[in-house]
Amino acid sequence: MKGYGQFCPVARASEVLAERWTPIIVRNLLLGCTTFNDIASGAPGLSRALLTKRLRELQRAGVIEISPKPDGHGSVYELTMSGRELWGVLAAMSGWAQKWMEVTPERSDPDVVLWSWCHSFLRHDRLPDARVLARFEFGAGRKGRPVRAWLLVEQKNGEICARNPGFDEDIVVTIEDPQAFARWHLGLVGWEEALGSGGIRVDGRRDLARALPTWNAGPQSHARMRREHARVPNRMPSPHLEAVGAPSRRALEPSPSSGGGSIPGFDGWVLTLGDAGYEEARAIWNGAVDRRPAFIAGCRGPRDVAAALRFAREGDLPVAVRGGGHGVAGTSVCDDGVVIDLSPMKAIAVDPDARTARAGAGLLWGELDAATQVFGLATTGGTASETGIAGLTLGGGIGWLMRRHGLTIDNLLSADVVLADGRTVIADENENADLFWAIRGGGGNFGIVTSFTYRLHPVGPEVLAGPVIWALEDAPEVMRFYREFADDSPREVNTGVALRKAPPLPFLPVELHERPVCIVMMAHLGDGEQAERALAPMRRFGKPLLDMVAPRSYIGLQSMFDAGVPSGWHYYWKSAEVGSLEDPIVDTIVEHSSRVASPWSYTVIFQLGGAVADVDESATAYSNRAAAHTVNINGVWLPHQPVGDLETDWTRAFFVGLEPHQTGAYVNFLDRDEQEDRVRAAYGDDTYRRLRTIKGLYDPDNVFRSNHNIRPPDRSEAVG
Ligand SMILES: Cc1cc2nc3c(=O)[nH]c(=O)nc-3n(C[C@H](O)[C@H](O)[C@H](O)COP(=O)(O)OP(=O)(O)OC[C@H]3O[C@@H](n4cnc5c(N)ncnc54)[C@H](O)[C@@H]3O)c2cc1C
Asked: Which residues does residue 428 pair with via DSSP β-bridges, in sequence order?
């Protein structure tokens, strides 16, 4: 017999939305998963059959759209506008749930504790590699009835299931005393004590029984939070304070065996050679950089930053500052010194009324975009979602919004900075205005920024964007046409060109893989019809092999090329800014691009102009605002491939060909072998001179020199 729910569409829809996998599927779509496999891999434990069913139901409900892939194999899944609005509801609900999840001994429902553990305090780095299923038996659950839940651990992720997800259980945890479980989770008692009280029992595999308590960072984190809260009652007073996203690999707590106490006054985590987690923590995005610091100090706030800095200075140790660790030059890690790692500092406060965001310096662009897009807002940020906001902002910040809204620094309202002498100051137009001028383009030379406040703009949530791909043989004509198209484009249009062998990535049809191509990437920030009209001429030019321009989420656009630039590969790059793409420049670019050997190396040309050029050249330390394009040549190889020299030589030869045309360089695109003369040339004489003067005031001993360094004047030297 059919139930009411099967007849009533509203009841049926509510059932689908209330189902526990729906928010997970919607989250994965919002994070940019567009294929079935991608969505499935972000939902371990969900069977493929159930995922298929849920996706169909969501399509019927108008939450997602399913369209065939361009190559005809499989489907592309994307959220509709309503789906994205639904995400706003889910985000608000999850904020509310987060609050509700704040466990106290009084509110110690054991399954709430388990959920809190899994959601916020799971030590992913400590989880076993093999799949493990633990059953939790709560002797006296709600209303005195026994309750069961399962913790499924798979591929270093954990998930709470209300039913057995279909595997044999490896351990069974029986919780007779919910208070004992909550007290342990809150760090009020140790695991041994909780077991000893008879309130908890573990049966099954002994190795897992021993490892289980180490998967929960709750006991240490709660204890530390209690200490911190006792000292700092309200760190970021904002009604919109949000912790963003799932904890990233870098934000996890390293081994508790490492001694934070080795740095006086420091409350974060410290790793030294030999500590568990040290190798992972010293690795940065560019796998070609291999440096071994003496200490890696994971900071939780400005006080930790100041303590780590003081410690380094007293020990006369080199200092490197790490934001997102995405810099190709590898300056965020140093040999034998102290890495001041800001990656735990991910707090963000978005004020949708004032249209501002105050963001911790450890955030990545994907995380910042996710938080601001909840309110339909964004600021100019990097085009790869794993890039750190800190390094990018301090160098200037170019991205898909810049022609309309300016560089990232043009949207920077203020910054909190820890100076070389340990003082914490604000830098904005009114306070320390010289410092504020210098950090907008001058990089990490003047202090350690612990948080940035940005101006936000309404963006998306949907934009018309994507790549159009032509054969590389057509590149000379395509780029000549592109030159006119780009020069005439309104500010809503942001474009770039990439020349490369098409990478073997799933979103490209197999027949294109490794074929040399010329890609024009375009995005329009305006409304649908206007956007279609503005992009049409370029899309119609010649005979494109593939046109992937489509309405897509802004977040999807921001992460679209992530798969082509994964962490850990080896990179070497060189860069030059140029004016309009005159024929000799086009010919040089096409000639060198056609010589590339690796399917991973590439050249990308970002279109500048628009609002970037509106700002006076002397208003910030970012130089050469008149440049029309910046050309970035990337030699890329995989860690096991012995072709590093080959790709590096290709990159250098390409750059030599471009050198006669270069009008400047973007400091964030300089590499590890580019020295003082190149840094000076990148800024131009006037700006460089002014930067040196300010460096002399804020960092006369050049403590911050692991960067594209601006040397302070010698005491006797007149700057010039
Ligand atoms: C694949 C890829 C795509 C990119 N795309 C873009 C793009 O679209 N637009 C763009 O503008 N740039 C882009 N970049 C360049 C990017 O801006 C720089 O690599 C930038 O340094 C990354 O910031 P980060 O915080 O991850 O850097 P990190 O490597 O952590 O730091 C680099 C340097 O910045 C300084 N620094 C970092 N954090 C702080 C801080 N809080 N206080 C003081 N100094 C600090 C330090 O000197 C440090 O050595 C891209 C880079 C890559 C590799």
From this structure: 414
